[in-house]
């Protein structure tokens, strides 16, 4: 019986059924055909699995009591960062990834202070960018400080950059020649993957939990590439008054229903066009469900997976977006 796994996604390799995960034309290969085509041709084949399977993996991690790195996206904190504690009680380092997409004016200390004020149960918090190799040495020092065994697990939702971060650790600190498959698609990693960085440290990647409220689950590949920022975001600020609306990339619309003169600053990918209209004359996205929000003073209105709108003055707004996408209010991060 073959027990080899794909070094790219963790699926068990098999050469019998092309429709199943882990398929390869040659069982002696190290990666499956899906990973090969993603790495070499940019062809993304979506694999849909239930979160129940991934949660069982997290429960296995909980039994180990090893150190866990919990990765979140700097632009897209989830609504409830503490939900990971429903499955894992291990000591954790909160790793805020993709710092490179935030404006340079946003200081690490501000992000860390904001997160600490939430009363989170983490041994430490660090802001990193695997793309820019930013704070990776500092992260490694934290790992060595807090780890209780040779094994350190990496967990988080899909599309937060877990595999990219591990690839950076491989490049910086080991002679391991393989790399994990990365893509903008959800559910790229399908099972646990162990990478021995040294005699004293093995990093274990896990599949990302699928956040069903994230917009990336409901767009095609071309839109996904636009949604995911590739470089530093340039915030777009609009002085706005009642009766006006903003439409973001034909994905999200916000109508200013009631309130005084206000300032909306959008933190979204530079590839997404933002247009302002008279809301009574604009028909764009009116076929989407409408939700009304009474937004407080200095709040962010977050569209899960897309970014957020910083709103300065308390007001009432109507939001139009895909019915499956989660939109929520929080205290301003920036």
Q: How would you sum up this structure, described in words?
A:
- This protein is an alpha+beta fold.
- Helix content is 19%, strand content 27%.
- It is built from six helices and 16 strands.
- It has helices at residues 33-41, 51-64, 108-116, 136-146, 162-173, 221-227, and strands spanning 67-73, 92-97, 124-127, 151-156, 193-198, 201-205, 236-240, 244-248, 252-258, 262-267, 274-278, 290-295, 299-303, 307-311, 315-321, 327-331.
- A six-stranded mixed beta sheet has the order 3-2-1-4-6-5, with helices on both faces.
- β2, α3 (108-116) and β3 form a beta-alpha-beta unit.
- The longest helix has 14 residues, at 51-64.
- The protein is globular, with a radius of gyration of 21 Å.
- It starts with 32 loop residues before the first helix and ends with a strand.
- The mean pLDDT is 87.
Short account of what is shown:
The protein is an alpha+beta fold and 334 residues long.
Order of helices and strands: HHEEHEHEHEEHEEEEEEEEEE
Helical segment count? 6
| Rg over C-alpha atoms, rounded to the nearest angstrom | 21 Å
How many strand units?
A: 16
End-to-end separation in angstroms reads 54 Å
Could you estimate the helical fraction of the residues in percent? 10-25%
Largest sheet: 6 strands, mixed
> How large is the share of residues in beta strands?
25-35%
